[in-house]
Amino acid sequence: MRAALNAGDMTRGAYLVSTASWPLITGLWAANDKPLPPNGSVWPHLKDLVKTLPGLEALLQGFFGGETRQRMLHALTLLDWIIESLKVEEA
Description:
Structural class: mainly alpha
Shape: globular
Oligomer: single chain
């Protein structure tokens, strides 16, 4: 996605954002150690997530409803946060 963004390839970026949508949602719930709600009830259950990044709802709105460049930027922000949140600290 970063490569598509850097290259200005909006078609590839749009494809990547689309294919990343469900794994991204899954990652948000995994970072909270919660079971994923049914597909149609994800939005109402955002309030159940305790561990989130600031402006989660606005980021998701931009991710799902923005123009392609904005969608990629929001996806990268969300994915970076999810990856950091899922890292296990070594003892």
